[in-house]
Every structure is written in structure tokens, then in C-alpha cells.
């Protein structure tokens, strides 16, 4: 199969307008005859479900949480980018496009990224009209800040809770359509499979998490807005329930999975404190504007710190290594996320880590407090300092923060074309669940932008073209494919319940996380990845032989839910390793030790790897087939990123 | 740390339920409360006993999914969410009592899990501005004084966890409902439907079986996000003015 991105031809700035005009429309009177399923109610899912219902389609929306408002988009802190140029500082759609392509280390599709920048301005208008209380200036107009090292101030924000406010806006639009009877809501319901008929997505199989009832739902199209797969690492900044199941089951039904090895590891998270740790907490990267990152120069001092024999303040300036300032004099502590993370790992690998586990570096505000006063620092970061103290019990005004990188976002996902359609016609993927817009590295404040762009302003146009072509005849809910998929789901659940082994689900999840973090984390090489592949295969076999899943299907059974998700992570993990092995270049969040510049920076190989790697599932426990979508750059020139 | 946990166990909505006592050892003061519960559940699972079910998701205090009534307080002794409560708050040897939210409008699903669908239905009754996607004015067309935007944000910061209801002796949802009514009543975008919104949301709140407000302020004292009682005063004012205008009935 040849991967057709369906990118419109013609000048970049006219592609989307032309494409919208060339797309077929569904007659308004016919729209109510079409049913659309939306899985996931985060920014992408809630905005898509609301917008499609407003157009007149009959929508069913599913989420595994008890309310659509709990989706993990809610946890995003920093902000949302838009090329409004309200600050008169030289921003434009083209500049946002260019920054996003470059930030993604030239591994995303030009046409998609340009469209993202183009519709970014509409998102802000929409959210304000819904009553989202963005930060404002004294004159009453919207405030902006510069974020993630951008040269212009284009980030809109609502204190440190931008994701929450945007999601509550989309949730309110969704709630309105529920009240109007246009959306039927299915909370505490998990998608277990996609039903395909003659190669088209025609519905899903779900499990009611309260009663355990397995049900089928027929529709003309299915939208997967189910977020990222960072929890494959066990420890990440994702919510506990975030999982890959919907995307993975779709993958096994024919949707290609693209660039699974692209994961973003965020440098400023609270370090792991012990084996009991269940998740990691992100601290906004704005802290690096004033905090200085360091470790002791010598292993001896680091060991004394770890044993508690000395305090950080006892270490003199000449014995400290401010390694980011030393190695990157022009960017210093503000180097991009991937560079900051990798360097923290390097110094800890040299046994210079500063907490009990040796997996932490200092982020020190001493100099900023001496320069600007404690009150000034409190005004800037008060809530973050409080959060840090709440979790660690240490006062960051008096002793430096300890931070360490953590898995935060996954750029890979289901392969989609310009219409956000996967390789299965009728099956769409939006938001973090797809692979499209961030290339190999996502810039700060771009995730919220993409989720809402896909849901409010892209899919409502592109889905019409498909629906108009297939026509409004009802989907036959009695087609044997529904019963077959339903039986497959029931069998898989029974299999999990019948193993009755000796090890818990978390045991396997943690073991997988260790393998992924060690060999497919911040730095990867062929040797480690090959080893990891074997280890994952072994672990998967052991899981299906020895996992202990208690209880029954016909009840609220959180262990069973988790087991079913971990089973999918155990398969995805191997594909991530395969993808990382195949991509022997370094790019963005994917750093191959074999591919670095003489001074240890990531070295891209544009000649051989300027493509999106889309993997096709063949059969259980068989290698997947790689398809390549060449990335063509007609508008930007590929350059090496440098922060020296 | 060594602790004794008295936990409410209830098989399903129709089961009567009751307390079961579990001793637990080896708890680190660095653990969060939910990580302590994870440790207990791992131990139960290895012994072949059904783990204690509880709601949780983001574990960073923003999704509003976690609940738990700990030692007589929603989200425990501190004004934070349960997921942000750490074991260093407790002392070695302590007995901790853990119950679900208790309110008629939040029926228990299993163990410590309750159904908070009533909150969603209150929002569906009118907690939004009636605008479709597209065709809205430019975001800077209507200036909003910073003070107003900040105050609206303070109301909008509610996470919908239900601690206010659990804290209230009448199981009233006034703090939750008033936070949304206030947010939209303060912003220019919410003016057009201001009156009907207050009426519809209050009516839905009553229909769900939440109690009345007797101004004890327990909700504000226990709210992990510091939502202020001022919102309730504002809602009462909104509701009163709406009921004086017949076209909104």
C-alpha cells in the first residue's frame, strides 16, 4: 500500500482553503441520518463531538473516566500558542508554522503544520466566546507570554491551569449538545475494539466499566481522540488511566502506527522518591528562566550529599558544575527540552546525581533570590514552589529543588492523512493519539493548540467529504462482524481472568517500564534496543502465563481494566523498540548514541530518514511491516539545530 | 510507618457495606495517600483478595477524580486533593478511617467509588454559553477588566470533585453550582442567558436530591481549590433577580 498523505497541491498558504472548497458537503437535512462515534473526551474529543453535533450529526461520545471533564488534557499547565500577533512583535501564521516545523526537527508534514498555525487564531476566539477566563492585561485585552524559548510572545494562558480552562470550555460545549439530545454520553465506558466491514470502520465494541457489559455500537465513522501512550514507561506525567488500548486495537484492525519511538522527555519533573512511586509530577519549565541547574563537580561530593553528610548549601561555587551554562553558553539553562533532559541523564550516569537514588540534579534559585528578593520569586513561581513543597516536604526557597526528566508526551501515534483519516477509511484520529503535527519533538504550548485545532476546525470539514461519499444508509448493526468482534473481546477478557498466576498486573507494568526507560528512553543504541526487544518478548510471554487478575468481568474491576491495558502496552513496547532500531539517526526526542556530532549533539540523517515510519500490523507475535511516507520540504530549508 | 486502616467496603450499589480493618506496615512518609492505598492493594492482590476500589486519575490535583473521606474530612486533614496528600501528614501507629463521599445524589458504586453524574447533569442544565463553533468575534473585540477576568477564573478553577457536598451536613451542591453560575455571570459572554442559566441550574440541582444551604461554610473550608462562599451569595442574587422576571420562567 502506498501512503497517500492527500496533501493538497498548490501554494502552502492556499492549501487548506482550496481543500475545504474541494471537499464534498453533506446536505443539512441528511446530517441527522449519520452517526459518528467519538472515543475520548479530552480537548480533541470534546471539541470534535460538540462541533459535529452542532452541525447536525448524531454523536455518541465515550470516556473511561466518570465524567468527560476529567480527561488528562485538564492537567496541561503552560498555555496555548496562536499566531494572533496581538503583541506586534513580528508573529505570523508563517512564523508559527516555521517554528513548529523546526522545533519538530524537520520530521513533520508541512501542509498539516501550516494548517495548524492557520487555524490557531480561531481557537482563541472560540474559547473566549465560551467564557474561558484567559489572563488579561489592565486594559482588558488578552495577555501573552513567551514560552519554551520562542522569540515572540504568542502563548495565551490561564494562570498555570490553561489545560483545565480549555477543557472545561470544550466540556461545556459538549454538555450543551448532550442537553440538546445531539450527543449521547457514555462515561465509565472503555473502547475494546474497532469493527470493520469491507475495510471500513463501522463501529466499536465497548465495556461498561461498572457492569462489565460488552456492547457494540454501529456508526458511519469513528473518531479516536484517546491521547498518548506515555504510560508504556509505567512512570510518566500522564494520568494513571491514560492508555494506548483504543489506538492499539485500531492498529491491529489495520490502522498504521507512525513513529512510535518519538517520545518527549520533559526535563523539569519531581524525581522518583522510591519504588512505591506511581506517577511523576511536572514542574512548569518556566522555572528554568530563573533557576540554575547544577550537580557537584566530583563524585565524592555527590556521594556525601546522597548520604546526607553535607547539605547543598555547603558546596562552594567552585565545586559546583553548572553544566548547561558551561556547555551551552548562549542558551544556558534555557536549552530545549530534549537537550536539557539528556544532559541531566549524562551527569547522573557519571554518578554525580544528588538525591538518595542518584537520579536527580539541582535547580537552584539562590542567585535569583539574592538578585531579585524572595518576594519577587514568590510572585513568579509561588504556586509551583508550594506544589513542590507539598510533594517533597522541602522548602525550595531555602534549599535547591531536585529535578529529573520524565516521560511527558508522545509525538508518535496513529498515522493520519491530511484529512486526519487513518489507513482504515472511516476511522479518524485526533490530538495526541495521531502522529501528525509535532514531528520528532513537540514545542511547549503546542499540544493544546493541536487538540483543539483537530476537533473544532479540521475534522468537522474533512469528515463531511467521506460521509457524503458513503451515503446516509444506516449501518447494519446485525452484520456478523459485530458479533465476531464482540466475541473476540469477551474471549480476551476470559483469557485474562482464567490465568490466575502469581504476579500482579503492576509487577508486569513496572518491569516493562524499567526496560523501556533503560533502553528506549533518553538515549538509545542498537545493542540496548536489541536486548530490550528480547526482554519485552519474554515479559509478554510471562504475562500471559503468570498474571493474576482477580474478580469477574460482571462488576467494577479495576485490576481487569489495568490488565487489559498493560497487555497492549506489552505489544506497543516492542514496536517502539523496532521503530527506534530502524531509525538509526538522532532527531528531536529520539537520540541514537551512534548518531551524534563530535561534541555530542543529536545528528540527523536527512538523506536516509526524512520520512514518517508507518507500521502495519501483520499477525500476533510477528514482525510488523514498515511503510514510509517521504517528507517533502518545499518551503523550509533543513538545518542542524545548535544551542551553543 | 505502621498504620491501621479502617476502610469502607461495599460490593456494589445494592450491598449494605461495612468497615473492614487492615493493618499495614512499611509505609514511607514520602508516599502520597493514594500510593499507600496502592501498596495495600498490591498486598491484597497477592493474597487473592479483592483490592479496594477508589477513583483516581491525574494524581496531580487537577482532574477532580479522586475523592475519599479521610478521618472525617473530604480529601483528609489538609485543604488539598487526596492525591496530593502525603503520608508525612500522619503519625506512626495512627488509625485512619476511609469512607466514600456520602450523599443521596452521589450513590456508592463500589467500595469508595461514587457516581457523580449529577454534577454533569447540573452543567448540562445550563453551565455554558450557547455558541456554536465558528462565527464568533475576535478574542480581543470585547475587553474584560483584569479584575473581572481574575475573579471569573477563581470561580472557574473548581475541579468538580464533590468535596463540598461531602463536607456539607445537608449534602448541598451550592458551592459547585454557584461557581459555574458566577463565572459566567461575571463575564460579558455569559450575560445573554444569565437569568435562565441560574434558574435552570438551580432547578436541576434540586431535582438531583442535593440539600439546601444553611451557610455553615464547611464547603469552603474543605474545598481543595479554595472556591469562595461569595459564589453562593452571588448565585442567590442571580436566582432571586431571575425569579422576578417572568420571561425567564
UniProtKB/TrEMBL annotation, chain A:
Q: Would the keyword Membrane be found if you checked this record's keyword annotation?
A: yes
The protein depicted here goes by the name: succinate dehydrogenase
The main enzyme category here is oxidoreductase
Show the SUPFAM superfamilies listed in the entry.
FAD/NAD(P)-binding domain (SSF51905), Succinate dehydrogenase/fumarate reductase flavoprotein C-terminal domain (SSF46977), Succinate dehydrogenase/fumarate reductase flavoprotein, catalytic domain (SSF56425)
Tell me the superkingdom of the source: Bacteria
Gene Ontology terms, MF aspect? electron transfer activity; flavin adenine dinucleotide binding; succinate dehydrogenase (quinone) activity
Tell me its cofactors: FAD
Q: Where can this protein be found?
A: Cell membrane
What are the positions of the active site? 337 (proton acceptor)
Q: Name one Pfam family in it.
A: FAD_binding_2
Q: Which UniProt keywords apply?
A: Cell membrane, Electron transport, FAD, Flavoprotein, Membrane, Oxidoreductase, Transport
Q: Which residues form the Fumarate reductase/succinate dehydrogenase flavoprotein-like C-terminal domain?
A: 509-643
Q: What is its main location?
A: membrane
Naming one, the record's GO cellular component terms include: plasma membrane
UniProtKB/TrEMBL annotation, chain B:
What molecular functions are annotated in GO for this chain? 2 iron, 2 sulfur cluster binding; electron transfer activity
Query: One short Pfam family name for this protein?
Result: Fer2_3
List the Gene3D superfamilies.
3.10.20.30, Alpha-helical ferredoxin
Q: Name one GO biological process term.
A: respiratory electron transport chain
Q: Where is the signal peptide?
A: none
Query: Per its UniProt entry, which superkingdom is the organism in?
Result: Bacteria
Q: Which residues form the 4Fe-4S ferredoxin-type domain?
A: 149-179
Names of the cofactor(s): [3Fe-4S] cluster; [2Fe-2S] cluster
> What PROSITE patterns does its record include?
2FE2S_FER_1, 4FE4S_FER_2
Q: Which InterPro entries match?
A: 2Fe-2S_ferredoxin-like_sf, 2Fe2S_fd_BS, 4Fe4S_Fe-S-bd, Beta-grasp_dom_sf, Helical_ferredxn, SDH/FRD_Iron-Sulfur, Succ_DH/fum_Rdtase_N
PANTHER family recorded: SUCCINATE DEHYDROGENASE, SUCCINATE DEHYDROGENASE IRON-SULFUR PROTEIN
**Similarity comment:** Belongs to the succinate dehydrogenase/fumarate reductase iron-sulfur protein family.
- Name of the protein: Succinate dehydrogenase / fumarate reductase iron-sulfur subunit
The species is Algoriphagus aquimarinus
Amino acid at each position: 500500500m502506498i501512503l497517500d498523505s492527500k496533501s493538497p497541491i498548490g501554494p502552502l498558504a492556499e492549501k487548506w482553503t482550496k481543500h475545504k472548497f474541494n471537499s464534498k458537503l453533506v446536505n443539512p437535512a441528511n446530517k441527522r441520518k449519520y452517526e459518528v462515534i467519538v472515543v475520548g473526551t479530552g480537548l480533541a474529543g470534546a471539541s470534535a463531538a460538540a462541533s459535529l453535533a452542532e452541525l447536525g450529526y448524531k454523536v455518541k461520545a465515550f470516556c473511561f473516566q466518570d465524567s468527560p471533564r476529567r480527561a488528562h488534557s485538564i492537567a496541561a499547565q503552560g498555555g496555548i500558542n496562536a499566531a494572533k500577533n496581538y503583541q506586534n512583535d513580528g508573529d505570523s501564521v508563517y512564523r508559527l508554522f516555521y517554528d513548529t516545523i523546526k522545533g519538530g526537527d524537520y520530521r513533520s508534514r508541512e501542509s498539516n503544520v501550516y494548517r495548524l498555525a492557520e487555524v490557531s487564531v480561531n481557537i482563541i476566539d472560540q474559547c473566549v466566546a465560551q467564557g474561558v477566563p484567559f489572563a488579561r492585561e489592565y486594559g482588558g485585552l488578552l495577555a501573552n507570554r513567551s514560552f519554551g524559548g520562542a522569540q515572540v510572545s504568542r502563548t495565551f494562558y490561564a494562570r498555570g491551569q490553561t489545560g483545565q480552562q480549555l477543557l472545561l470550555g470544550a466540556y461545556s460545549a459538549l454538555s450543551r449538545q448532550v442537553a440538546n439530545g445531539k450527543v449521547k454520553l457514555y462515561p465509565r465506558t472503555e473502547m475494546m475494539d474497532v469493527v470493520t466491514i469491507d475495510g471500513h470502520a463501522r463501529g466499536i465494541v465497548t465495556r461498561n466499566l461498572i457492569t462489565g457489559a460488552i456492547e457494540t455500537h454501529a456508526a458511519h465513522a469513528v473518531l479516536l481522540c484517546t491521547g498518548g501512550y506515555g504510560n508504556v514507561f509505567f512512570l510518566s506525567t500522564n494520568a494513571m488511566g491514560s492508555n494506548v488500548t483504543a489506538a492499539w486495537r485500531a492498529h491491529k484492525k489495520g490502522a498504521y502506527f507512525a513513529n512510535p519511538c518519538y517520545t518527549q522527555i520533559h526535563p523539569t519533573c519531581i524525581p522518583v522518591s522510591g519504588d512505591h512511586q506511581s506517577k511523576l509530577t511536572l514542574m512548569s519549565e518556566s522555572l528554568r528562566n530563573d533557576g540554575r541547574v547544577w550537580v557537584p563537580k566530583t563524585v565524592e561530593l555527590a556521594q556525601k550529599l546522597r548520604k546526607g553528610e553535607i547539605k547543598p548549601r555547603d558546596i562552594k561555587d567552585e565545586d559546583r558544575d553548572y553544566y548547561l551554562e558551561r556547555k551551552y553558553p548562549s542558551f544556558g539553562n534555557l536549552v530545549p527540552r530534549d537537550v536539557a533532559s539528556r544532559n541531566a541523564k549524562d551527569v547522573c550516569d557519571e554518578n554525580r546525581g544528588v538525591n538518595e537514588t542518584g537520579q536527580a540534579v539541582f535547580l537552584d534559585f539562590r542567585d535569583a533570590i539574592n538578585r531579585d528578593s524572595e518576594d519577587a520569586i514568590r510572585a513568579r513561581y509561588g504556586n509551583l514552589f508550594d506544589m513542590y513543597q507539598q510533594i517533597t516536604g522541602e522548602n525550595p526557597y531555602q534549599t535547591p529543588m531536585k529535578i529529573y526528566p520524565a516521560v511527558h508526551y508522545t509525538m508518535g501515534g496513529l498515522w493520519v492523512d491530511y484529512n486526519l483519516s487513518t489507513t482504515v477509511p472511516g476511522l479518524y484520529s485526533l490530538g495526541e493519539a495521531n502522529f501528525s503535527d509535532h514531528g520528532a519533538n513537540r514545542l511547549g504550548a503546542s499540544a493544546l493548540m493541536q487538540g483543539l485545532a483537530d476537533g473544532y476546525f479540521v475534522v468537522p470539514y474533512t469528515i463531511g467529504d467521506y460521509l457524503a461519499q458513503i451515503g446516509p444508509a444506516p449501518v447494519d448493526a446485525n452484520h456478523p462482524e459485530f458479533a465476531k468482534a464482540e466475541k473476540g473481546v469477551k474471549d480476551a477478557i476470559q483469557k485474562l481472568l482464567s490465568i490466575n498466576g502469581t504476579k500482579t498486573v503492576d509487577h508486569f507494568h513496572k518491569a516493562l517500564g524499567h526496560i523501556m526507560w533503560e533502553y528506549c528512553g533518553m538515549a538509545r543504541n542498537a545493542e540496548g534496543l536489541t536486548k530490550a526487544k528480547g526482554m519485552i518478548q519474554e515479559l509478554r510471554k510471562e504475562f500471559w502465563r503468570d498474571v493474576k487478575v482477580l474478580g469477574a468481568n460482571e462488576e467494577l474491576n479495576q485490576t481487569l481494566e489495568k490488565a487489559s491495558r498493560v497487555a497492549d502496552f506489552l505489544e506497543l513496547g516492542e514496536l517502539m523498540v523496532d521503530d527506534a532500531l530502524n531509525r538509526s539517526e538522532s532527531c528531536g526526542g529520539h537520540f541514537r548514541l551512534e548518531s551524534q556530532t563530535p561534541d555530542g549533539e543529536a545528528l540527523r540523517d536527512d538523506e536516509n530518514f526524512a520520512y514518517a515510519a508507518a507500521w502495519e500490523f501483520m499477525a500476533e507475535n510477528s514482525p510488523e511491516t514498515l511503510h514510509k511516507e517521504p517528507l517533502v520540504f518545499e518551503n523550509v530549508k533543513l538545518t542542524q539545530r545548535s544551542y551553543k | 510507618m505502621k498504620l491501621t486502616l479502617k476502610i469502607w467496603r461495599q460490593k456494589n450499589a445494592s450491598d449494605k457495606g461495612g468497615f473492614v480493618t487492615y493493618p499495614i506496615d512499611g509505609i514511607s512518609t514520602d508516599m502520597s495517600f493514594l500510593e499507600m492505598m496502592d501498596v495495600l492493594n498490591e498486598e491484597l492482590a497477592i493474597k487473592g483478595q479483592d483490592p479496594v476500589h477508589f477513583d483516581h486519575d491525574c494524581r496531580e490535583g487537577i482532574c477532580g477524580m479522586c475523592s475519599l473521606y479521610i478521618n472525617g474530612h473530604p480529601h483528609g486533614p489538609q485543604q488539598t486533593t487526596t492525591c496530593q496528600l502525603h503520608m508525612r501528614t500522619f503519625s506512626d501507629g495512627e488509625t485512619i478511617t476511609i469512607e466514600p463521599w456520602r450523599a443521596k445524589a452521589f450513590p456508592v458504586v463500589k467500595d469508595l467509588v461514587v457516581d457523580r453524574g449529577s454534577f454533569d447533569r447540573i452543567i448540562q442544565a445550563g453551565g455554558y454559553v450557547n455558541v456554536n463553533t465558528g462565527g464568533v468575534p475576535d478574542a480581543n473585540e470585547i475587553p474584560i477588566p483584569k479584575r473581572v477576568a481574575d475573579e471569573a477564573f477563581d470561580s472557574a478553577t473548581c475541579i468538580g470533585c464533590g468535596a463540598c457536598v461531602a463536607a456539607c451536613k445537608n449534602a448541598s451542591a451550592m458551592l459547585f453550582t454557584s461557581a459555574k453560575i458566577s463565572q459566567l455571570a461575571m463575564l460579558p459572554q455569559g450575560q445573554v442567558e444569565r437569568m435562565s442559566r441560574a434558574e435552570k441550574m438551580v432547578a436541576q440541582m434540586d431535582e438531583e436530591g442535593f440539600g439546601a444551604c444553611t451557610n455553615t461554610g464547611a464547603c469552603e473550608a474543605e474545598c481543595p481549590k479554595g472556591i469562595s462562599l461569595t459564589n453562593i451569595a452571588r448565585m442567590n442574587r442571580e436566582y432571586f433577580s431571575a425569579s422576578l422576571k417572568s420571561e425567564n420562567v
